[in-house]
Design goal:
This protein has 156 residues and is an alpha+beta fold. It is built from four helices and nine strands; from the N terminus they run H-H-E-E-H-E-E-E-H-E-E-E-E. Helices cover 34% and strands 35% of the residues.
Length: 156
């Protein structure tokens, strides 16, 4: 957040020097710049922290979290030709504890038929602990699980 404020202050100086704007227009302009900069930082998957009491909650982008992934399993589904083929990607919000285990999962999107399989798969993931000030902390991220399975309908 500090880098955003420094950037906004720099931009404010440039705008004041080169553009004639009223105070209200300038305020709207700077609000837009701040929101845009924050969105760009999030798109770059930079970790962000939000202090809660004495413990920190860390939100990592998917690409950063993937660098910490040490055990990943493919969804355990059948590849037979009998049944209904279901393909899709399930997006899941996960919380990783201090030891690198998936401690909480929440489905964000994806085919309803594939969600239980995706949840079971992601719960087997293991991560390296994320260190904040040399101390392991819990972190949150989002994972996408692509699945291509055959589901048997029970009909002969």
């Amino acid at each position: 957040m500090t880098s955003i404020i420094i950037l906004a202050t720099s931009i404010e100086r440039i705008v004041r020097q080169h553009f004639a704007m009223g105070n209200l227009t300038r305020s709207f302009f700077f609000s837009a710049v701040l929101l845009s900069t924050q969105a760009q930082l999030q798109a770059q998957n930079l970790p962000s922290t939000a202090q809660k009491g004495s413990s920190a909650q860390v939100q990592l982008g998917p690409k950063v979290a993937e660098t910490l992934l040490i055990h990943k399993e493919a969804p355990a589904c059948q590849k037979d030709s009998d049944g209904v083929k279901v393909m899709g990607t399930v997006v899941i919000a996960i919380t990783i504890d201090k030891d690198g285990n998936v401690s909480h999962t929440r489905t964000l999107s994806g085919p309803k038929m594939l969600r239980p399989l995706a949840l079971a798969t992601v719960r087997k993931y293991r991560y390296k602990p994320y260190l904040l000030n040399k101390t392991p902390v819990e972190f949150k991220t989002v994972v996408s699980i692509p699945i291509d399975c055959i589901f048997h309908t029970g009909q002969a």
